[in-house]
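WARN  no MSA supplied for this record, continuing single-sequence
INFO  ligand: aspartic acid
INFO  echoing inputs
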Amino acid sequence: MQRTHIADIIKEEGKTVTLAGWVHARRDHGKLVFIDLRDRSGIVQVVFGPDVAGASELRLEYVIKVKGEVKKRPPSMVNDKIPTGAFEIGATELEILNRSGEMPIPVDTDGFDINEERRLQYRYLDLRRERLKNNIIARHKVIKFIRDFLAERGFIEIETPNLSKSTPEGARDYLVPSRIQKGNFYALPQSPQQYKQLLMVAGLEKYFQIARCFRDEDTRGDRQPEFTQLDFEMSFVAREDVMALNEELLIAIVKTLYPQKKIQEIPFPRISYAEAMQKYGTDRPDMRKDKNDPDLLAFCWVIDFPFFEKVKADAAHSEASAQEWTFTHNPFSAPKPEFMADLLAKKNIPDILTTQYDVAMNGLEVGGGSIRNHQPEALEAVFEIMGFKKERIYANFGHMLEALSFGAPPHGGIAWGLDRLVSLLQNEPNIREVIAFPKTGDGRDPMMGSPAEVEEKQLKELGIEIKKKS
Ligand code: ASP
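INFO  complex generated
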């Protein structure tokens, strides 16, 4: 269909154009019918005289094709809130491409006052609203920028499996039963951690992925069961290299895509975990000098975290109740070099600091990563400190220990919570506003009706029987 995007009509004054889009608003003045026509690029007023058939039939959200002349509006009628506001279309032809039933939710508001369950049930309509459309486009731009930036610096984008094996990232796994290997389960990855490290063993040196991660957690604030990480891993690097690259990328995203925003301090200030806890009572300090300025971004690095902490009674990854220590961030991390001897000797455990670095912004965690143990003895020591028996270490992580024994280069990486970063940049109150199809706080998708029961036959094939609650 030959059509002009609404945003482009400002270059077409006096010309006849064909537009296509949705009826955003409608005012029927009898002889004249006015509509606001919306497409992805913008909104414009269209005026139908009595000679254009069908105009009085138009209702909200009908999809139409309109031919007409681009006219300048009288100065007193200019709407300077929208870029096309100085123009209108004098329609000469109208074709209704599709009708719409009455809308279950309005789409011409910011949507904040609409019940979220209803917004998610009609997400395909909710996404028609300008705010959400802009968020989805902004997310695309951030991701495109990241891809270009990293590709220019020699990074390779590599996909890793979603059907994987249980990974110890501290949350519960989503399990997928195998039909062919009955009784066995895949786990959806909590992060691509092990694969990305194995890609370093493979010699690929610089990896990144816009990776979907899955964590089965109880409702906890602004979390989603599946979310997106920007995941990196690099070989032959020290902590400084990873931090420098990340800082450069974050600054470039803000300066290029959000020039109206100000970064409070460059280079990003660094604070140790101990100091952050003492001064701010949190390991993601909000360092903003003016908390009312929506355009102020106060990034900071938090470093020098303790490697281990005492197991909490309800920890999902605690195996036996006898387990005393667990990792604070990532079991694959290396300790800071001065603590390697203690790690290997399993001594002074609470004092061992990890190479972990977290980047926070305005009081929220944007990302975190570490330099890894590239020698198998060190990784094994971590699991031993956590009280894992040899058999369990080899059953769960034998592949990692083996891989590290074949010339694994020193390596490290980081992952960002991409949904969180985009929501902060877009000044949105939660990550659901920047995800096309998010789930509710309790993990449901009211639109698709998931999770859902499956057919008896499917369960049978999987060898699964559901115990009905009596
Ligand atoms: N895999 C880690 C995480 O998901 C990030 C990293 O250390 O690279 O938190």
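The first strand starts at residue 16 and ends at 29.
INFO  checksum written, moving to next record
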